[in-house]
Amino acid sequence: MKKHHNVWAIVVLLGLLGWGIIDAEFLNKQEPIASGNGQIGVEKGNTAPDFELQQIGGGTVKLSDLRGKKVILNLWATWCPPCRAEMPDMQRYYEENKEKGVVILGVNLTDTETSPEAVADFVKSYGISFPILLDPDKEVANVYKAISIPTSYIIDSSGVVQNKYIGPMSEEIMENMLSAIK
């Protein structure tokens, strides 16, 4: 009987994974929204909710201060295997595109970590140079509905949410999503 439960669990997990891929790759291929709908929220067309968080290495970053730039808002944790897998691609994409007005904000779900120092060690070992922000109270994670991680939001230069992506992002995915927006 237990063997059947394992098979069903695998079938369900594969189905959810397949749906996530189909949703991200095909169903979200909509035209970018030229301007926001005036509402603040995390749905496509909403103005992204503003926040200000401490950055590893000191200082704070406020989302609204990045208007005029395209932003990938990535919610992640060091213990998350898909998050770890996407970091080298994110770093390469950031290095190749930061002079073109692209910012990656890595919002770490700090309350799930062993310590803020563990996050700093991870950032150093992976050679991450884009801003890593600490979210110790899950304030941003809750507002941006990060039920599973990694979760990324694509925000255009006007501060409007253009897309949401659940799962690890590759350079190709980032390029496809950001090349379609202003």
What's a concise summary of this model?
With 182 residues, the protein is α/β, with parallel strands linked by helices. It contains five helices and seven strands. The chain has helices spanning 2-27, 81-97, 116-126, 139-143, 171-179; strands spanning 52-55, 60-62, 70-76, 102-108, 132-134, 151-155, 161-166.
Give a description of the structure.
The protein is of the alpha/beta class and 182 residues long. 37% of the residues lie in helices and 19% in strands. A seven-stranded mixed beta sheet has the order 2-1-5-4-3-6-7, with helices on one face. Strand 6 and strand 7 form a beta hairpin. It starts with a helix and ends with a helix. Residues 22-34 have low confidence and may be disordered.
> What is the count of helical runs?
5
Helix fraction, binned, reads: 25-40%
- Strand and helix order: HEEEHEHEHEEH
Mean pLDDT: 87
Distance between the termini: 55 Å
Main sheet: which strands, in order across?
A: 2-1-5-4-3-6-7
Uncertain spans, ≥5 residues at pLDDT below 50? 22-34
Backbone shape: globular
Strand content: 15-25%
Structural class label: alpha/beta
Radius of gyration, CA atoms, in whole angstroms: 17 Å
- The tally of beta strands, per DSSP, is 7
